[in-house]
Write a structure and sequence with these properties.
heterodimer, A: 482 residues, alpha/beta, six-stranded mixed sheet, 18% strand, B: 183 residues, mainly alpha, 3-methyladenine DNA Glycosylase II, Chain A, domain 3, Alpha-Beta Plaits, two-stranded antiparallel ribbon
């Protein structure tokens, strides 16, 4: 079974995970001052709903979502709001609005944080609570969990897949979670089944994590839960690739999993949902892997959102051996940060302090020799060399035809390219531009339809007025005549 | 070669030609495409703000004028140079900057009604080309921000000047990409 459950591409990469896994999850100290980013990683920043100087408790809502794909934000510490300012963040935009909360150390929890009797609640109410708690996908995209579950409900999905693949080198926060808190994952899965209306759940874990699989199997009492080992290959944890490995189904171009009856959530998200129902705690913490040869004691930390990454590094024994680069996320898809004064957000699952030994020196780019290695490893089944040619030629229709939108930016093509062409970075930029254009086209079509309706209505109104005028004149004439 | 054979052949071919001609004529009338495909393709490249800065009452009329050769391709400030380039590529002309006589390209903006000052006259409602203003006579009006194109056509009819345009935050890098990245 396990051998079948992998897709025919991708890479086998050195895992680098044992380092951070040797000690288990450790609580990180609360930050003295929390910088709570309004954009927790979804790209849709929340709007502050609190004033400077106000006192907050742990779990107090301090910002509300103003976009359908955004989440509200709660305070991770108890204390006073000292400012609302632009601050460096780990988001692609670089800087972003943050609410700065001074921690008074009292640890008082907001009384609104109460356990939920989720089993007796209607699903829509559970969804509303999950959204209100700001729970977002902890696999790196920080997409609102409730929006995804709600879409699943709307499409009447049957199968929930929990993503415990965690395929990227260095990252092991999900593995630590599954080993130590398997019961949370399974409880979260049950709540998600209730909220989404799905009938059964598969927890998919890569087969190089036997301890995690054993822990989940030991905790699984619900017959609707199945724990499946899938082949270890990067990027097995990419949503489409994972769903293909688990169910054999492919998600159509420009569609989402619910259209084929599937729903995918990260195991960490499930655990966050479990904490919400058992303690009422909103999304104010996550497990983050702090690793790399550049930190003293690599570990998985259970840390509050808003903790500066510098403090997490200190909690892991501080920097050592002259780290050259600080990466938020894994080494394949992560972002190199310019400073460690960046607060933890829900989307940051890993921080790698990489020394020169961890980093491969990348030589100068050379021309493409059309060897086709990139096409062999592309997990999305694309032809990166053709995409790259179209990109250099600026041929947008050709890029579209070659499926640029289906690129998952995993970096496999980069990794194998003998000419060291930075393919992923280029595809990333092109995809951002092309998705902007796509949105513009959709909006233009929408506006055109509105304009046409407006014109039609105005013409009808003018016609009706003219007819009324004619009628009135005819009546007046006939009265005068009669 | 015999003369009657030639006449016969000519006759047959003439008859076939007449028949096919009649069929083509009928087809041209009955199976005519609903709209001029060139106009559609030009219209697809225009930004659909319906602002009328090109001096045509909307994007489609402007597309029609371009297709007929009545208007040049450099009249669309909201579309900017990118639109001119796209139109030039479609029509096989040389790209050029937008003619400043028709206005300058502006950052994205939306109308905003100061509800304190709005008297509920409803004059701005028919002026909005995309029906983005809601309201009724003697009730306060408001702009549906997500539908507003920032065309400024609601400004002239307002008797109390309670409408202003506000800049929208510029979207640079959508995060749709991040949403699909593997974990």
């Amino acid at each position: 079974m396990a051998a079948r459950n992998r897709f025919p591409a991708g890479l086998e990469l050195p895992p680098h995970k044992a380092l951070a896994l040797q000690h288990g999850i450790q609580p990180a100290p609360e930050p003295a001052r929390a910088f709570v980013a309004m954009d927790q990683g979804s790209g849709h920043a929340a709007t502050p709903a609190i004033a400077v100087g106000e006192r907050v408790r742990i779990g107090t809502r301090i910002a509300r979502a103003t976009h359908a794909n955004g989440t509200p934000v709660s305070s991770p510490v108890a204390g006073t709001v000292v400012s609302i300012e632009e601050h460096e963040t780990a988001s692609p935009a670089g800087r972003g609005l943050c609410i700065v909360v001074d921690n008074d150390g009292s640890g008082v929890v907001d009384p609104a944080c109460e356990p939920l009797c989720w089993e007796s609640m209607p699903p829509y109410e559970v969804l509303a609570r999950i959204q209100d708690a700001g729970i977002a996908g902890l696999g790196g995209a920080a997409f609102p969990a409730a929006a995804k579950l709600g879409a699943g409900r709307a499409h009447e999905v049957t199968h929930l897949v929990l993503n415990g693949a965690e395929c990227e080198p260095w990252i092991c926060c999900d593995e630590a979670l599954m080993r130590e808190r398997a019961a949370d994952v399974l409880l979260g899965a049950r709540v998600m089944l209730h909220a989404s209306g799905a009938s059964h759940c598969t927890i998919a874990v890569e087969d190089d994590k036997p301890e995690a699989i054993a822990a989940l199997r030991a905790a699984a009492t619900d017959p609707r839960m199945q724990i499946t080992a899938i082949g270890t290959v990067y990027p097995a944890g990419a949503e489409r690739q994972l769903l293909h490995a688990v169910t054999g189904m492919e998600i159509p171009h420009r569609e989402h999993p619910p259209t084929v009856g599937l729903l995918c959530q990260n195991v960490g998200t499930a655990a966050a949902v479990a904490r919400l129902v058992t303690t009422g705690e909103p999304a104010i913490r996550r497990i983050v892997t702090v690793t790399g040869s550049g930190v003293g004691r690599p570990a998985n930390l259970d840390a509050r959102i808003g903790t500066p990454l510098a403090e997490l590094a200190v909690a892991c024994g501080g920097y050592q051996r002259d780290p050259r680069r600080l990466i938020a996320g894994g080494t394949m898809t992560g972002r190199a940060l310019e400073t460690d004064e960046v607060p933890l957000t829900l989307a940051v699952m890993c921080v790698v302090a990489a020394t020169a030994a961890d980093l491969a020196v990348r030589g100068a780019e050379m021309p493409c020799i059309r060897c086709g290695d990139c096409a062999r490893v592309c997990p999305a089944g694309l032809l990166p060399q053709q995409l790259h040619r179209a990109l250099l030629a600026g041929d947008e229709p050709l890029l579209e035809r070659h499926g640029l939108v289906d690129c998952i930016e995993c970096g496999c093509c980069d990794y194998v390219c003998p000419s060291r062409i930075p393919l992923t970075a280029r595809f990333q930029r092109a995809r951002a531009a092309s998705s902007l254009r796509h949105e513009e086209r959709l909006r233009a079509a929408h506006l055109r339809a509105r304009f046409e309706r407006h014109e039609r209505r105005m013409a009808e109104a003018a016609e009706a007025e003219r007819r009324a005028f004619e009628d009135a004149r005819r009546r007046a004439r006939s009265e005068r005549g009669g | 070669m015999n003369a009657p054979g030639v006449l016969q052949a000519t006759g047959v071919i003439a008859a076939i030609a007449a028949m096919l001609g009649a069929a083509l004529g009928w087809a041209a009338g009955r199976l005519r495409p609903n709209a001029d495909p060139l106009v559609e393709r030009i219209d697809a490249l225009l930004p659909q703000t319906q602002c009328g800065q090109c001096r045509y009452p909307g994007c489609r009329p402007y597309a029609l004028a371009i297709a007929r050769g009545e208007a040049d391709i450099d009249r669309c400030p909201p579309g900017g140079d990118a639109t001119v380039r796209a139109l030039a590529a479609l029509l096989g002309r040389d790209p050029r900057p937008v003619d400043a006589a028709f206005g300058k390209p502006k950052p994205p903006q939306v109308a905003f009604i100061d509800e304190e000052r709005c008297i509920g006259c409803a004059l701005c409602l028919p002026a909005c080309p995309v029906d983005a203003i809601v309201g009724a006579p003697r009730y306060v009006h408001t702009v549906i921000e997500s539908q507003c194109t920032g065309c400024e056509l609601c400004l002239p009819p307002c008797p109390v000047d309670c409408i202003e345009l506000r800049a929208l935050p510029v979207v640079t890098a959508p995060h749709a990409a991040a949403a699909m990245a593997p974990a």
